[in-house]
Amino acid sequence: ETTEELGANLPVVKVGAAELIGRVLPGNTYEYGYKIGSTDADGEKAITISLSDPAGNEAAGLEGGRFTVDSTPPAVSNLAADRARLSAVAGHEVVTATFDCAEDVGAGVAATIGGQAMLCGARRPAAPNYACTYTVKGNEGEGVKEISVTTTDAAGNTGVGSRTVELDFTGPDLSLAVQPTGRPARLGELVTVGVASIEALDGGGIQL
Fold first, then answer.
1. 3 state DSSP class of 3
2. Beta carbons of 113 and 183 less than 8 angstroms apart
3. Cα–Cα distance between 60 and 50 in angstroms, integer?
4. Which residues of 50-73 are buried (b: 16+ CB within 10 A; e: fewer)?
5. Please, are residues 114 and 145 in contact by the beta-carbon 8 Å criterion?
6. Rounded to an integer, what distance in angstroms lies between the CA atom of residue 92 and that of residue 103?
7. If DSSP codes are grouped into helix, strand and coil, which group holds residue 94?
8. 109 φ, ψ to 5°?
9. What is the pLDDT of residue 27?
10. pLDDT tens digits for 90-132?
11. What's the distance, Cα to Cα, between the start and end of the chain in Å?
12. Does residue 162 contact residue 146 with C-beta atoms inside 8 Å?
């Protein structure tokens, strides 16, 4: 049943200027619903209640209420990783992903790397707002892995972000070419050593 069908002597409940349709429950209880629509701006909304008896007397001291609308996702931005390439070697095994989120989502932060959970700290006022870390164990499997971040606020809105890093557990394969070849080097002669690698090195990884 609706308020229209039950007559005029039911509580009139409004959210702003919108009058709600209600139903009667056992025990002289009434239930009303309000569906958040696309035109409802974020922020507080007031609930007002009025009631009159069949003699036209208005109820006094009725308390309404308030609720908050939040339809804005907690957006993830500026997601970065302090390493693009990792291994299980000491000094190269920890990656920290940082990102910004204008909203403090409390414990609603989740981050993974290749499906493995990262450890995320509390929000910081200064950018970057959040930092999540992961220590490579060596059993994750080589290759490109996605760092995925999800933020969820108290209203259930979500924000997402992602980027990739590479896990590399294989040492570089090097070949040497020494000049001159086939004879001893003379006094004052320059001996050159050519090193070829099948993968790109950082310039500091070769020692002779």
1. helix
2. no
3. 9
4. eeeeeeeeeeeeeeeeeeeeeeeb
5. yes
6. 32
7. strand
8. -115, 130
9. 80
10. 999 999 999 999 999 999 999 999 999 999 999 999 999 999 9
11. 88
12. yes
Cα(40)–Cα(138) distance, rounded to whole angstroms? 50
Distance CA 75, CA 98 (A): 14
Please name the amino acid found at residue 197. S
DSSP secondary structure letters along 119-150: EE----SSSS-EEEEEE--S-S-SEEEEEEEE
Low-confidence ranges of the chain (pLDDT < 70): 1-9, 179-180, 197-208
Token pair 């059993």 in the structure block, residue: 139
Show the tokens assigned to 196.
């070829």
What's the confidence (pLDDT) of residue 200? 64
For residue 6, the surrounding DSSP H or E stretch is: helix 3-6
User: The tokens 């910081």 sit on which residue?
Assistant: 124
SS3 category, 81? strand
